[in-house]
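On to our target:
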Amino acid sequence: MHEMIPEITAEQRQRSLGWFAVWWIETFTLVGRGGGVGMQIRFAPEVFQFIVNCYALDKHGRRRFNRVTLCRPKGWNKSGIAAAIALFEALAPCRFDHWAVEGETYTFLGETYYYEEGEPVGRPVQNPVIHILATTENQTGNTYESIFYNCTSKDAPLSVLMGVGLDAGMTRILLPEGGVIEPVSSGASGSDGGLETFAVADETHLYKVPRLKNLFQTVKRNLPKRSLDADPWLLETTTYFQAGDNSVAEGSFDYANDIREGRIKHAAGLYFDWRYSVLPFEDFSDEKKLKRAIVEAYGSAAKSPDGKDYVFLPDGRLEALNPATGRTADGWSLNDPNVEPAYSGDGWVLPDAIMAEIYQPDADPADSTRYYLNSRASVEDAWLTETEIMTHTVMKDLVDKAIEQRRLPMLWQDILSPDDEITLGFDGSVSNDSTALVGCRVKDGLLFIIKMDEAPDNNARAKWRVDRDSFDMQARYMFDHYNVVGCFADAAFFESMIRDWERDYGQKMKVFARGKGGGELMRYYTNIRHRDVYKSLETIHTNTQYALTDADNDSGAIRFLADPRLLNHIRNARKHNRQFGYLIFKETPKSPKKIDAAMASILAYAARQQYLGNSQDDVEDTYYMPIRMY
């Protein structure tokens, strides 16, 4: 699977300096380390596309992105690609100057590039300052080693510049027309006053200690200093992070999710490119499934057995591309929606070698998931594992389209028919957390957000309060216009509002939070009914163990709409053991990673199960001292 946030259209890709960048890199740079050292670089289709996306321009020729995250599995050559881009930034015309006229050319070291009319033409950055962030004081890193090789090896085309001002050392490289490439560590003096025009932060899943996180933030803060003349940007490469480490990579994922969810109101400067695959642990023993998952995660980096380029078609088939046309026998190409790169003739990773490592007796499946499938390895106390979530997530294409059209909050209207039987779940807070109204379609167990409001992660947070009236209006709209058969609502902070729902709509419900005669028609006190909450949690957990079914009204069916707001709240839920079982909480009481949509989903699903006749026996009328669950 391939996530690109934001999605970039074919028209936008045409307006990019990346086409020229690929030609320049393939013409003048070599592989700088590893078994392929000294070989000419030839980019596989996926890498080609990534570089074109990196250099996308707006209509005025300014860079669209000032921060780019490349997330790929271990061994994908992220450092080598970063080194090649750094050389382009240092020595090539890498910033927009004008649009090409017919017949315009560029010549460098005896090689000539022929521009197409209307293609963007670049100019060099004056006195470029390129910093390669190092994780230790005495380690220059993989990226800098590749740059150094290309500047000093007699076989490298760029080494001829050593006689005209290029001065390369292990601590810095001085550029012919002024400027520098240098590794920078957390102990470097003066980094706060830097004038970077480009920076590389390699393997940011390792940036989890304060000194490295501070270094990253310092360099990032420096970038706007030369925004007028140099249009600076930062390239971050990483393998999937360990959840809960609070690394720089984890922060970048959160930022990308905020963009997808529409929580970033200003023009976001991040381009986020992530390839991964999902495979349940129990399927690791199936060699065919594991090999396919590895190829899906590595994409074009996976070496094809016959030298051809392959793609995954939307229906999952693996097909070869015709090298002359770039299309399959049925006419599919990488430019078509939901067609993803697979094996490549220019790949460098052998899937069988990765499989051999995964099958080592001391290999941890969670580590293999993170390093080789580039996917989330759930924390030990996660309520649901990533596999359990992703194997029951549906309608991703529909969600992606809604996000692109900025109508994710209204997507449920396209999915739901007024005649569909649904249940509602509600959970919320006044000021510090989120408030969510979630629906569950009875016939297939589909959980979806109807409305969610979340405290902003900025200075406005202190004064933010949830808009109670908007939730009251939305719930009443659902009762009036949709076939709601039950509603379980956590009454904390919203007692009077939910009592009003009970008064106006309670008798119309088919299921009740605590028996029709008990008075609590919708109010569901999660801070009292701990055992009932635990049973509902276990019901969902158990049902995620089974494959999706198309049978209507199957009590075991459960589906999560691929809404990142919903999925992230479910991922954030942590189990805390109790004598009777467990409950779910945030990772810490003050964590910004909310779970309210998960809690609302649990309540909606509990109402659905009760409606289908699968509820627990009537609960005892036993009450305890209320405490708020965080």
Q: What stands out?
A: The chain has two domains: 2-275, 386-617. The radius of gyration is 27 Å. The chain has a mean pLDDT of 89.
